Amino acid sequence: MDDSITLSGSDQAKTADAKAWIRFVQVLTLTLGSGLMLAGIIFFFAYNWEQMHRFVKMGIAVALILAVFAVAIKVKMSDFTHKITLSVLCGLVGVFWAIFGQVYQTKADSYVFFLTWALCILAWVFFADFYPLWAVFIVLASMGVIPLIPSCDWHSTLLMLYGAAWILFFVFAPKYLPRLSAPPSWFTSALFTVEFGVAVFTVCYVTVKGSEAQNLLMAFAVAAATIWYALKQKDIWLYSMLFIGALSVLECVYFRCLLPTFGLFYQIMMSAAALGGASFAIVRQNEKWKQEESGTSTNQSVMDNGKQQP
């Protein structure tokens, strides 16, 4: 006699939802706890700064780094907990360099601090293979590298080339570096969003100021790549950003060429009409992609059921 219990579709969905909520609570509490711990360490140094000797300050920071590092390599934990631990370790490295700079009054430029921090945690970021940590690393590295980009007529092009280098790295590196997993969609979308934002800003700047037109070629190349990726991946977020970018450029064109003739009222009316049309197009495209995804899932289920039949 078969005593197994078969759950209905609704019961399976409820079980899946419950597991998802439990996972969400675990991730949320662990992330908040780690963040609060880092904040507590920072506030501890800030409150007791005048009372502590410089060797005590440096010693506490180094001891915390060594302690967290020992926990990361010796204590058995889940994969996510291990990644959070390495993230805390990377944060403590920043605390150490901040204390070092204050104790010895290095008077170094801020970009040196961020670049040093990024270089010191590069190995741990790569080993963790945790894309939120990669995002933090890119921000730190960018705060160290971007100030080094020369301020010339090609500045915007150099900025976009820098962003494109990160995108290309995360597109191709996982194919050749086994340790590095493929980036999640939100991460790639974020990189494209920032890159596209720089391109839109460049076009708007050239439109309004009428200078540095040599940067338009790179801006159009970035826009074309963003359009291609958004349509290929059916990314509704990037698809929406395309319309926002187009509307921003249209606003700049109107401000530069048509505002003295037609005035502010027509600009408001035109903007409202364009925004309404863009919203309608985004909603329709999102519905279309959802229908295509639903149809693909249905066809796959039918094929799987056909294979299971004798």
Features:
mainly alpha, 9 helices, single chain, disordered N terminus
- N to C succession of SSEs: HHHHHHHHH
Let me know the largest β-sheet: none
Radius of gyration: 26 Å
Structural class: mainly alpha
Which parts are unreliable, with pLDDT below 50 for 5 consecutive residues or more? Answer: 1-9
Q: How many distinct domains?
A: 2
Number of helices: 9
Give the distance, in angstroms, between the N- and C-terminal Cα atoms. Answer: 24 Å
Number of strand segments: 0
The averaged pLDDT comes out at: 82
Report the helical percentage: over 70%
Query: So what's the overall shape?
Result: globular
The portion of residues forming beta strands comes to under 5%
Q: What does it look like?
A:
The chain has 310 residues and is mostly helical. The protein folds into two domains: 27-129, no CATH class; 149-295. The protein is 83% helix and 0% strand. The protein contains nine helices and no strands. Helix 1 (9-47) runs parallel beside helix 3, helix 2 packs antiparallel against helix 3 and helix 7 packs antiparallel against helix 8. The protein is globular. Residues 1-9 have low confidence and may be disordered.
